[in-house]
Write a structure and sequence with these properties.
By secondary structure, the protein is mainly β. The chain has helices at about 130-135, 250-255, and strands at about 20-25, 30-35, 45, 50-55, 60-65, 70, 75-85, 90-95, 105-110, 150-160, 165, 175-180, 185-190, 195-200, 205-210, 220, 225, 230-235, 240-250, 260-265.
């Protein structure tokens, strides 16, 4: 179950592919920061025929890796380094809705390039987003090696009437989670529901350390997708006192209860 809200159009820089944003570029390397600002939609990002490397996610550097297609959940960001060939041309950067045909995007174009119309419907549906991409990433500046001081279980839930929960409670029904200032905390997200949940922690970046396949030096993020039936563990150093929201970045889920906070003191 991917999209529980249908839209009649999808935008990139506020425009559809019927009248896309054409970005002037020159031959050579171009760095793109792609932001999924959608309320309820995950996308697959493609640079088409351009050679592309992922160099950062959510503003954090990763070991550069070539990828032809990149899943991007609500609230996530990815930095792509693409190479514009010496002969120039026009190059679509596309975002296709998961499990659907609709797509949007921008066009990178050198001076005088012929810009062809790109259809708003792809030839084939995109797959569901998953964690294959994250499992291939490694942080360039990982958290310092140390054992966790605490483990927080974060069970994501769905109930009748479009009610979404964390640890069995909607926002406002339960006390905030607790963490000691200066502590290393691991949060284990568990998702028995039939939808992916992009979980976002305010005020901090965390490191993905387990996707259910064993420990690894994963990427540093502030939004991680937790797939249906999946488990994701992240480690975070709580170095700022205060009350920090933790919520699903599918905003209809957040508004219907899938939000809590972490009190750091």
């Amino acid at each position: 179950h991917a999209n529980d809200v249908d839209y009649d159009a999808y935008l990139a820089n506020d425009r559809t592919l019927a009248d896309p944003d054409v970005i002037a570029v020159q031959s050579g390397p171009v760095r793109l920061r792609i932001i999924n600002g959608a309320t309820a939609t995950a996308f697959w990002i493609s640079a088409g025929g351009l050679a592309a490397q992922v160099v950062a996610v959510d503003g954090n550097k990763v070991s550069p890796i070539a990828r032809a297609s990149i899943p991007l959940a609500q609230g996530q960001r990815v930095d792509l380094l693409v190479q514009i060939p010496p002969e120039g041309g026009a190059f679509p950067i596309l975002a296709q809705v998961e499990n659907a045909l609709m797509q949007t995007g921008v066009i990178l174009a050198t001076a005088g390039a012929n810009i062809a119309i790109v259809p708003v419907l792809a030839e084939n549906p995109a797959p569901f987003v998953d964690l294959t991409f994250d499992s291939s990433l490694s942080a360039l500046t990982p958290l310092p090696a140390k054992p966790a001081d605490a483990l927080l279980h974060v069970a994501l839930g769905m109930e009748a009437g479009y009610r979404w929960t964390i640890n069995g409670a909607a926002h406002g029904e339960a006390a905030p989670l607790q963490a000691a200032l200066g502590s290393r905390v691991e949060m284990m997200f568990m998702n028995p529901t039939m939808m992916m949940h992009p979980m976002h922690l305010h005020g901090h970046h965390f490191q993905v350390v387990d996707l259910g396949l064993g420990r690894f030096n994963g990427p540093k993020r502030d939004v991680v997708m937790v797939p249906p039936g999946g488990m994701v563990t992240v480690a975070v150093d709580f170095d700022k006192a205060g009350k920090w929201y933790l919520h699903c970045h599918h905003l209809y889920h957040m508004a219907s209860g899938m939000m809590t906070s972490v009190t750091v003191a």
